[in-house]
Structures are given as structure tokens and as C-alpha cells.
Specification:
about 130 residues; alpha+beta; GTP Cyclohydrolase I, domain 2; four-stranded antiparallel sheet; 4 strands
Length: about 130
């Protein structure tokens, strides 16, 4: 497996999404803002050499896909949202790993706080090769 230190990193931070995730009825009913940070591990040398968008991750399209994934299908936990986002990021074969942080600044906590975050890092699943016959 490629380790995060073995790849270049492309980050997009502060992606604002409005969604209806949460365990409480008012979270599902009223919705709230979630903020997403992405860091992708990939090799950028080909794009640096060609200067062609097709040789790298189109982060504009990726952000649109991530936003759509966050804003659809309400779930209880931000763990599910983070896993969903990592799956979107890993759809591009050039992405070796994805680090996703989901911020839930409006979490229903009875105390003064700045933010609630969950960060996950997921590697690309290696395809197993069938044994030779």
C-alpha cells in the first residue's frame, strides 16, 4: 500500500454543505451546515509535465460530487457521511488514499464549543488478481 508520505497531496478545505444528518428529529427536520475538508494522495508528476486537466483530479468536479453525496440521503452519524465521501474520492483511480474531515459546528451539545470533527483516512482497495490456472 502507498503510504501518505509517498504521494503528493491535493487538498480542498471548507466545503460548505447543508444537510439533514443527525440522530435527533430536529436535526433531520431543520438541517444544518456541515463543512468538509479533503486531502487526496496522488502522483501529480504526469499533470505537471502535460499541463492537462485530464492527467489529474478535477477538484471542481470532485467538490460537486462530494457536495451531492453529503446533501443526499440523511443518516444518523457523521461516520457514515465521512465514509460516503471517502468512497466518492476513491472513485478516481489516480487517488491512492483520501483523508476526509467532516465538521459539524452546529452539533446539538449543551455547552459552548467551537466544532465537532471526525477525520478518517482510507486507502485505495487493491484489486486482487485471480490466480493463474
Amino acid at each position: 500500500m502507498t503510504r501518505p508520505s509517498d504521494t503528493d497531496e491535493l487538498s480542498v478545505t471548507g466545503i460548505e454543505c447543508f444537510a439533514h444528518h443527525g440522530v435527533f428529529e430536529h436535526e433531520r427536520r431543520d438541517g444544518q451546515t456541515f463543512v468538509i475538508d479533503l486531502t487526496l494522495g496522488l502522483d501529480t508528476r504526469r499533470a505537471a509535465s502535460s499541463d492537462d486537466l485530464h492527467d489529474t483530479v478535477d477538484y471542481g468536479s470532485l467538490v460537486a460530487q462530494v457536495k451531492a453525496a453529503v446533501e443526499s440521503d440523511p443518516v444518523d452519524l457523521i461516520e457514515v457521511v465521512a465514509e460516503r465521501i471517502s468512497g466518492v474520492c476513491l472513485l478516481d483511480d489516480r487517488v491512492e488514499w483520501a483523508r476526509v474531515t467532516v465538521h459539524k459546528p452546529g452539533a446539538p451539545i449543551e455547552a459552548t464549543f467551537a466544532d465537532v470533527t471526525l477525520t478518517i483516512t482510507r486507502p485505495r482497495a487493491r484489486r486482487s488478481t485471480p490466480p493463474e490456472q
